[in-house]
Design a protein that fits this description.
The protein has 470 residues and is of the alpha+beta class. The chain is built from 17 helices and 18 strands. The strands form four sheets. Strands 15-12-14-13-17-18-16 form a seven-stranded antiparallel beta sheet, with helices on both faces. It is globular and about 65 Å long. Bound molecules: flavin-adenine dinucleotide (FAD). Flavin-adenine dinucleotide binds next to strand 3, helix 5 and strand 10.
Amino acid sequence: MALSDLAPVERNEEGIAAALGILKQRFAERFQTGEAIRGQHAHTTTYIPTQAPDGVVFPESTAEVQEVVRVCALHRVPVIAFGVGSSLEGHVNAPGGGISLDTSRMNRILAVNAEDLDCTVEPGVTREELNHHLRDTGLFFPIDPGANATLGGMAATRASGTNAVRYGTMRESVLSLTAVMADGEAITTGGRARKSAAGYDLTRLLVGSEGTLGIITALTLKLQGIPQAISGGVCPFPTLEAASRAVIATIQMGIPVARIELVNALQMRAMKTYSKLDFPESPCLFVEFHGSDASVAEQAETFGMIAEEEGGGPFLWTAVAEERAKLWKARHDAYWASLTLRPGAKGLSTDVCVPISRLAECVAETEADIAEMGLIAPIVGHAGDGNFHTLALMNAEDPAEIALVEKFVARLNRRAIAMGGTCTGEHGVGQGKAAFLREEMGHGVDVMRTIKQALDPLNIMNPGKVLPAE
Ligand SMILES: Cc1cc2nc3c(=O)[nH]c(=O)nc-3n(C[C@H](O)[C@H](O)[C@H](O)COP(=O)(O)OP(=O)(O)OC[C@H]3O[C@@H](n4cnc5c(N)ncnc54)[C@H](O)[C@@H]3O)c2cc1C
């Protein structure tokens, strides 16, 4: 991948100047153009170069989002929705400049319908804020990308995380949403019903659209009951392949595991130091079970037997909340732990996902590739979904290193696609994966382009993302 593979976005200097003037007058201190704030609102998480917007606006309602979009449409200026900027593929970059629309002031929880297990929130609410608000209801929102991302950003990237193997992804969790489209009109895609056959599924069109079709201003989400009992633990394995085979067997046997995370020996080394874990420096599975006291104990026992058959163990598990919390905090900090393996390096996080039966093969071939290419790239992943990450560490100032990592990533993405999988299980396309979309989707890319042109004919909604230059 190179940024030159992306559809170019020309700067419209005159339009940008006009929009800046109007938005400054209308939003006063809620419209900022300082260099630092513009930099913070461009992509900063990986090696992809920062492309800052020209201004950042902080709307507080759907009506204000409509105003901003109408100004941008009138002057043909890009508008890039922004949650907390934790996306990993250059999603919030502004290649043609324009306006970053920051949703942090749209952070109200509008309704919690405990009896229906759903809630309605504004897009700037983060997943941790929602779970904090729900703490006395016996309910929780299960989707947990490592970062404390906004629910708007999570819907826009169709995010998931460690719990997806049991509770699904944002695709399954968003019942309906309100979005401001490129012409400034607001639409609501449905109600609170658990299912609907009312026409085209606009909810799922917007979920995963990465701000390229509309700006989400409210979401109705499914909630889950907090399980009566939770147990979890860590199990070491002699090889990463053996651990992967244990994951496959666990899923194929129908054990309703809530989380099953694969960690290789290098990642374990980084986590042991960073999070002060006392486990062997070998490939491991981090596992969690939800249910009744009896069922979690039974699940843990069955998993322990599967692990033994693959030469793994001992499987040490606990139902003590504090001990589990320490393990999952370490798992969530894996990204930051990996960066310590090469201080000063930038990381490129991959997120291929393959059918579960191909997981061990895909992981083994990828591990061999890392060794052959001499990369430092720990492996960690939501293996129960067939989804795993490598974080390839590189000197982002060295073109030769970037080229090597990009070669590795291209091989990995193509391997996953060839196995019937995808180049992105959860991070999305942004700028970084656009070059692989045609290989994965074929003529589907043309249909996506037709949808984009129909809904955003002026190409103002997060231009230069998702769709490749062709
Ligand atoms: C350490 C770390 C671990 C991570 N682990 C995971 C993981 O396990 N699983 C996973 O799925 N992701 C993971 N991610 C990626 C990231 O957290 C997700 O992509 C997240 O969903 C982005 O949310 P955000 O609020 O940061 O959105 P942003 O980064 O601000 O925006 C992401 C995209 O959504 C668009 N967008 C934002 N808000 C809206 C809106 N209201 N309407 C329309 N479009 C909008 C933006 O324009 C952009 O294209 C991880 C990231 C980090 C840094």
